[in-house]
Design goal:
The chain is of the alpha/beta class. It has helices at 21-24, 52-65, 82-97, 132-138, 150-160, 210-217, 242-246, 254-258, 266-271, 286-298, 314-326, 344-360; strands at residues 70-74, 101-105, 117-122, 125-131, 172-181, 184-194, 199-203, 228-231, 234-235, 249-252, 332-336, 364-368, 381-386, 389-390. The strands form four sheets. A six-stranded mixed beta sheet has the order 10-11-12-7-13-14. A four-stranded antiparallel beta sheet has the order 6-5-8-9, covered by helices on one side. The radius of gyration is 21 Å and the shape is globular.
Length: 391
């Protein structure tokens, strides 16, 4: 959606020109084939306002409505909650039974029962091919090595040693939060207090309101002014600018990645985190570029620092945006499905880096994931929401 921008998805006036799900699916959302994807409740929503998981379901629906003879699906389970992943396994089984040929890019843990053969690639070459049964019989998942070295630990220590010291009475304080667009209630009665140094997991199914809740914190949603919200000890709307707020937050999400249209290099994108811009709109200082380069090195993507962001693999783009969130040592880190698109090694390495960061820095963290096993060890507080309400 190149004609739209990130904050537009939270502004009802600016998003009125965006197509709805019904329009995108050409009024075929009620097709029985799509029933397991539960598209019905999304029909009148603008595409730009869909959550990451909802967008994934609608894109899958669009592909299915074409009734293809060959269906190509690149990581279709990414961004889906537990129930949606289960439903999609059923769809794959149904399509296979009707004779549709399929090629899925997925992880060994997410191979649907209807898949008959497995092809494994490594470094751009075929590493082997098997029947599904033969592959699963020889596949023995092992916990990937963390690959975190003493040099990594020393680099984390050096990158965080000059982190500013903050003294906030609270990081986030929300009271009876309500957000609605027209008649569509997104958040209903949320109370949440996040104190300095706490590590939270924000959990809930696709469309539960997690992204909207986070947008109230990141100053991207104008409805924050209509609610009782204190950020970093200051009442929202009491004279601070959105940049005052963003300066204190390191943030990454699938939606931010989707709208991050940039012709800059990976190093420049990482350095843009110092100014909270989407794109390289302000020239970074040599010191800032050096710091950004060290974060990319720490995240094992330093070799791509000089490459154009839009030309590198999606996993490297995501690691670059994670580096962008970390460069300024903010008091609050918000990671919304941060490891989406990463392989097992990259996910585990990032997890270990964040655990080390928490050891060296008094940082507050909010972490969103559909895979609770991915949560870093310091996360010990949980907020679960469903249909916009706390559960």
């Amino acid at each position: 959606m190149p004609d739209f921008y990130y904050q537009q998805r939270f502004n009802s006036m600016d998003s009125s020109d965006a197509p709805t799900v019904d329009e995108y699916l050409e009024d075929r959302a009620e097709d029985p084939l799509l029933a397991p994807l539960n598209i019905g409740p999304l029909r009148q929503k603008e595409l730009i306002k869909l959550s990451n998981g909802e967008t994934r379901r609608v894109m899958i629906a669009k592909a299915l409505l074409r009734q293809p003879a060959l269906l190509l699906l690149d990581n279709p389970f990414i961004g889906l909650d537990v129930q949606a992943r289960k439903a999609f396994h059923g769809i794959v089984d149904h399509l296979a039974a009707t004779g549709v040929a399929m090629v899925l890019v997925t992880t060994p843990q997410e191979i649907p029962a209807a898949i008959t053969h497995v092809l494994e690639l490594e470094d751009g070459r075929i590493a082997g091919s098997w029947t599904r049964e033969a592959y699963l019989a020889q596949y023995h998942p092992e916990a990937p090595e963390s690959a975190v070295t003493s040099m990594d630990a020393a680099l984390v220590a050096s990158l965080t040693e000059s982190a500013p010291q903050y003294d906030f009475p609270s990081i986030v304080q929300m009271e009876n939060i309500h957000v609605k667009y027209g008649e569509n209630v997104i958040l209903d009665g949320i109370d949440w207090l996040v104190k300095p140094g706490e590590k939270w997991a924000l959990l809930g199914p696709n469309g539960s309101g997690k992204s909207t809740l986070l947008s109230l914190i990141t100053a991207d949603n104008p409805q924050s002014y209509a609610n009782r919200i204190h950020l970093f000890g200051r009442k929202r709307g009491s004279g601070e600018s959105i940049w005052d707020i963003k300066r204190k937050i390191g943030f990454v999400s699938p939606e931010l990645h989707q709208y991050f249209q940039s012709g800059a290099t990976c190093l420049q994108v990482a350095a843009s985190g110092f100014y909270d811009t989407i794109g390289y709109m302000r020239t970074a200082t040599p010191e800032q570029l050096d710091t950004a380069g060290k974060w990319l090195q720490l995240l094992e993507c330093g070799a791509f620092a000089g490459e154009l962001f839009k030309s590198v693999p999606a996993g490297i783009q995501r690691l670059t945006l994670l580096g962008r969130a970390l460069v300024k040592n903010p008091p609050l880190l918000i990671f919304d499905e941060p490891t989406q698109g990463l392989d097992d090694h990259q996910r585990n390495h990032f997890k270990k880096i964040i655990e080390m960061l928490c050891e060296h820095m008094h940082v507050t963290m909010i972490y969103v994931t559909h895979y609770e096993e991915e949560l870093p060890a310091p996360v010990d507080r949980f907020l679960r929401i469903r249909n916009g309400k706390m559960i």
